[in-house]
Structures are given as structure tokens and as C-alpha cells.
Amino acid sequence: MALSTSSVITLNINGEKRTLPVDHRTTLLDALREQLDLTGTKKGCDHGQCGACTVLLDGSRAVSCLQLAVAAEGREITTIEGVADGDRLHPVQQAFLDFDGYQCGYCTPGQICSAIAVIEEHAAGWPSAVTADIRPEAGAPALTAEEIRERMSGNLCRCGAYVSIVQAVAQAAETEARRTAGAAEGELTA
């Protein structure tokens, strides 16, 4: 008896459940682009080295070209199409526009998804390879340009928009910190 090489899976993408048949070897990237017509996620190197295909899996960044679609079943998947809140851009998207954090735009969806995760990782106090003091009691390091470059190093931009990308991530992190502080202050006064 031959084993089946395909399955029908249900993926939770951008808050919507999508059921589709897949070959067990289908990557999440190919399922998104070829079967679900979510073409914002880009195919760059197809080897997990450029970051163009970065999506968020349960809030953490992942290169979708190395993730099998069947292994993503039951996880919350956010693509660039699900980042904005209706017509209101996510703060990272707005910052990329404000600082021209793109040139050709091909890598931009992966850059934005990665930046969203970077800001959350930093806010949670995760150290990076360039964090000087990694002791938990030291708290979150300052989100310097060096920290941003290190944390975003898995996303390549062939056009070289790195200076603007770093500025956009810094601005979005500042916006998010103000929003979080305002929400916390509102809770205290309520």
C-alpha cells in the first residue's frame, strides 16, 4: 500500500481559515503565492538566505521558503496582506513610506514583516548578537542603529536601501513605544 504524498490542510492566514490540498513537499511560500494568490510574499533565493519571503508565524518571523505548508497548519500566519488594519497602515508600513525604506520594493514585504517582529522582540527584552549587556536585569538595550542592523541582517535589499530601512524601523519602534506607553497610561487613569 502506497503512502499518500498529499493532504488537505487548513491554514489560518491573516485571521482567515483557508483550506487547500497540498503536496507534502509544498513550501508555505509556494502555497501562499501559487494556491492562495497572496503574492505579496516574495520568492527571492528559495534557500532561506535573503528574507524576501519572511512572514510571521505565531508572531515570530519565519522564512516561508523553508517552512512546509503542512507544518504551518494550526499556526497563526500573517503575511504582508494582513499587516494593515483595513485602510490604516501598520506603523512599520507608514515608516517605510515616510523614510523611503524601499527602492524597487521587491524585498519590502519581507523587510516589513521582519521589522514588526524585531520591534516586538526588542520590546520583550530579547538581546541580539551586538547587545553589550545580556543580563536579564539589564533590561532591553537601546534600539540603536547597530541593534537594528543586526536584528534585520537576515533581510537583504539588493538596491541598498539599508540607511532608510534602519531609520524606518527606528521610527516605527518609537511610534509603537509611544502607543504602548499611552495605552498603559490610559489603563492607569481608567
TrEMBL record:
Record-level Gene Ontology MF annotations: 2 iron, 2 sulfur cluster binding; metal ion binding; oxidoreductase activity, acting on the aldehyde or oxo group of donors
Pathway: Alkaloid degradation; nicotine degradation
Keyword Metal-binding in record: yes
Organism superkingdom: Bacteria
Keywords from the named record: 2Fe-2S, Iron, Iron-sulfur, Metal-binding, Oxidoreductase
Keyword Membrane annotated: no
Cross-referenced InterPro entries: 2Fe-2S-bd, 2Fe-2S-bd_dom_sf, 2Fe-2S_ferredoxin-like_sf, 2Fe-2S_ferredoxin-type, 2Fe2S_fd_BS, Aldehyde_Oxdr_Iron-Sulfur, Beta-grasp_dom_sf
Pfam families: Fer2 (PF00111), Fer2_2 (PF01799)
Boundaries of every 2Fe-2S ferredoxin-type domain copy: 7-83
PANTHER family: OXIDOREDUCTASE WITH IRON-SULFUR SUBUNIT (PTHR45331:SF2), OXIDOREDUCTASE, IRON-SULPHUR BINDING SUBUNIT-RELATED-RELATED (PTHR45331)
Name under which the protein is recorded: Oxidoreductase
Organism (species): Streptomyces glebosus
